[in-house]
Every structure is written in C-alpha cells, then in structure tokens.
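Sharing a chain and its predicted structure for anyone who wants a worked example. Both blocks are below, sequence first, tokens second.
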Amino acid sequence: MKLSPFGKSIDDYLENVPLTVQSIAYDLKECRLIGSIGINSIEKRLVKVNNYGEAYHSARINSGTVKEYLLSKAQSIGFSVPEKGGLRVVEDNEPRVGSGLLSLT
C-alpha cells in the first residue's frame, strides 16, 4: 500500500515534504501527532525548507524561487523564516544560471 507520493511509509512522507510545517501527520491508531520536525516548526512558528528538491519543484510550479515560495507560505500562516536554517539555506542553494547550465552552487 502506498501511503504517500514520496514512498511507502509515513516516514518517507515526513522526510520529503517541501517545508518543515508540512512534516507532520496524525497517527490514527495511537491518536497522536507524529513528525517532530513539523511539531517543532509549529510550536516555534517558524518555516524552513525540509526537502530542498521538493521545495524547488513547488516553487517552479508557482513560477517563483524557493525563497519566494518559503516567504509566501510563512506569511500566509503568520509564521516567520529564520535566517539560520531558513533563508541562508535557500540563498546558498538557489539555482544559478552560468554558461548555459543550471547548477546548484
């Protein structure tokens, strides 16, 4: 049984969603939230990139950059984006065009 588009387990889902606030799920059998990254993100009201490849893909679908995607999602829920682990990660990995090739530098 495939539980998510990312793999065969809820752990695959938690690891592969674009943003930290999305890395959370509810365990129906145990009646509890799972996903420490997502829970921590919500408690601190911070949004960070959880999976850069998926965040990049989501940003491209919306015709924007990962930084724009991250800031837009954080603003839409009244959260902030920290410099460390947030914007710095995005800026360091934002695709750049050089010599006709797209590269992550």
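Comments welcome. The first strand starts at residue 25 and ends at 27.
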